[in-house]
Amino acid sequence: MIFFITVLLAYTFFIFFSVILKVGKGNTPITSFNQFHLKFSATYVGLAIAAIFYFELEILSSLIDIILGLFLYFGIHYAIFLNFFSLAQRSISSAILILLLENSGTLAEEECMKKYANGKGFSYIKKSRIEDMLNLGWINGDDQKYSITSKGQKVIRLVRFILKFWGLRQLGK
Amino acid sequence: MHFVVSRLTGSNLFMLKGLFILAIGLIVSLFIFKNYNLIPLFIHSIFVIILWNSFLIFFINLQNSISFRILREVEMVALKSMSIDEIEKVYPDLKSFEDRLEMMKQNQFIIEAKSQIQITKKGKNFSQFIILFRKLFGIENFG
Question: Closest to B130 (Cβ–Cβ): which among A88, A124, A167?
Answer without folding.
Answer: A88
